[in-house]
Write a structure and sequence with these properties.
Layout (H helix, E strand, L loop, with lengths): L3 E6 L2 E2 L8 E5 L11 E2 L4 E6 L2 E3 L5 E7 L9 E6 L4 E10 L5 E6 L6 E3 L1 E6 L3 E5 L3 E4 L3 E3 L6 E3 L5 E7 L7 E3 L7 E4 L2 E5 L10 E8 L2 E10 L3 E2 L6 E3 L5 E6 L10 E5 L3 E2 L1 E5 L3 E5 L14 E8 L2 E10 L2 E3 L5 E3 L2 H60 L9 H5 L3 H6 L5 H9 L17 H34 L13
Parallel strand pairs: 2-4, 6-14, 16-22, 24-31
Antiparallel strand pairs: 1-3, 5-7, 7-10, 8-9, 8-12, 9-10, 11-14, 12-13, 15-17, 17-20, 18-21, 19-20, 21-22, 23-25, 25-29, 26-27, 26-30, 28-29, 30-31, 32-33
Amino acid sequence: MANLDTGVSNPSGPVNGGTLLTISGNYLGNINDSISVDIGGEPKIFNFSPKKGILSGNTTVAIKGQDIVFEGKNRYTISFCDGVFCIECSDTQTTILQNPYIKCKTGISTEPRNMTQLNVIIDDFTVLTLNETFQYLPDPSFNISTEIPKAFQSGGVLFTIRGEGFNNVGAITVERVDNPCEVPEDTSTECETPPRLQNQPNNQTVDVHFDGVTIQFPIEYVEDPTFEMFQGIVLYDKESSIEIEGRSILNVARLEDYHINIGLDGICLITDISMNNITCLPPKSVPRTNNTNDNTVYVIVNVIRIKSYIGDLQYRTKIITENGNTFVIIVGILVAVLVVSIIIGMSAVLVLRRKKTEAANEFKMKIKAKDEIIQKASIEGERIANLRREDGNAYTEPDESVYDEINADEEKDTRGNSYLDANEGYDELGQRLPTNPYNQLQQTRDEIQKRDIKNNDMNADDQLQNNKRRNDYLSLFSGYEKPISRNDPHN
């Protein structure tokens, strides 16, 4: 009959033997039964960690090696020795994962010691040794503060324990908390609070284990923060912030404890936070989402161990008309075009105004230059008239007929046009006859006065003419918009 329900305890063991086997099954002992046991290679120990622990023991040591991991209970005897005596490392457990190792917990030492050898015995017949040192160091000491830390009822809030010798401890753990405490320095450790025990007061104590040393630490539990759900889907315009209402938001947690997720990979940047309100700015682009509507994403508030879904956020990317037709938003484009148009219009107005101002200034300068010329001409005319009035007898312009009577041949016989020749001619004027043309220059006083009166009348007419021209230019200056006619005789 075939073998049914057969089994072997400890189906593997070291080559040196000593493995206790228990075989179980139905109809055992038949000639056709086949029972086999796997024999591993020659076992080796590579290393162990940590290399130190406290005097109170209970430090978990992991031993790594080759072909040293075998299933079953009571198959290992492990100890640390210093050449005089050994301290057992008990409560073994094994793992057969990719990196197989054996675990054990150190025993108690009465004083600090350096244990220089690790001994591992498997199934009584296989003895393995490793010459490396394990140190027994003093137990930690504690400075318990009178101030009781506060924690959420859901737990997870960090609290600090201070003292000395924390680096001597292999692992610091808190009851009902999976994560071990962190040791940033030898004098302090940071741990997480466990959840509040139900049907217990808010002030409770928790056990904190420093390997073989255990202390009870007081904790005061307070109300967890709560957050209100959105009233429907919140429409987001990609610009403004969103408001999250709640209670006891800063009861224990701090700003850095809060993280608000938008969709799968979006973060809502917190800009303000109070006991009853959080203001944050979502990302401008739509985060990834598992929803069928790519424009709608969920919002989750994370604080310590609390994860609270408060609703959905919809990004406004489309406009729905009354007929149900969907159009891409063009408001931004229209605004941009309007702004550009305004800028261009203002620039054109400024350029035209500037050109008009420059033309007006140029025209004013021309008018001013002409006015100055007229003023100078008027002053010069007045000055000449005054000179003529003051010195009317000093000089009288001779008639051109006098010069016409001069003999041309005599003029040719002169020695030249030098200054001396000119003076020579005037010496003979007094000796010539009264009928000589040069003597006609001696006219009577009455004729000279008549000529002066005539000249004064002509100067007055010139003055009136100059004043008229000046007034015409001044009228042009006061109203430069009036065009100047080139046919005006006064121009």
